[in-house]
Amino acid sequence: MVGGDLGDGRIVTTSAEAYSVSRGTWRKAADFPLHLEFASTLPLGDSFLVLGGYEPGASYPTIFEYEWANDDWALRPETLGETKHSIAAFYVSEQYCRG
């Protein structure tokens, strides 16, 4: 789980939690670099991507990859346009994002 608001619709958190399927446990992950909500996520091997997103007054074309081994976020090449309330999917070896 990455970001989102804290229930009052105004305070957007950077907190992130990681779930291990093999262990069946959650752990605190490194905080996300931006205060985002309405981002899309995609699994990617042993990591995952967070695409786009929104914070009050701005949408983002960013893509971040969570690096499990380092418990860190890496900025990846941006999408072609800002996205929020989007959906994302992989097909064969390509990533698609709409929204």
Give the SSE map.
Elements: E1 16-20, E2 25-29, E3 40-44, E4 47-51, E5 54-55, E6 58-59, E7 63-67, E8 72-76, E9 87-91, E10 94-98
Antiparallel strand pairs: 1-2, 3-4, 4-7, 5-6, 7-8, 9-10
Shape: globular
Provide the structure class: mainly beta
Average the pLDDT over all residues and give the rounded result.
75
What helical percentage do the residues reach? under 10%
When the domains are counted, the total is 1
What order do the helices and strands follow? EEEEEEEEEE
Give me the number of helical elements. Answer: 0
Strand count, sense and barrel status of the largest sheet are:
4 strands, antiparallel
Number of strands: 10
Q: Beta-strand percentage?
A: 35-45%
Flag low-confidence runs.
none
User: CA-to-CA gap between the ends?
Assistant: 20 Å
Textual characterization of the structure:
This protein has no helices and ten strands. The chain is mainly β and 99 residues long. It has one domain. A four-stranded antiparallel sheet has the order 3-4-7-8, with no helix packed on it. It has a two-stranded antiparallel ribbon with strand order 1-2. It starts with 15 loop residues before the first strand and ends with a strand.
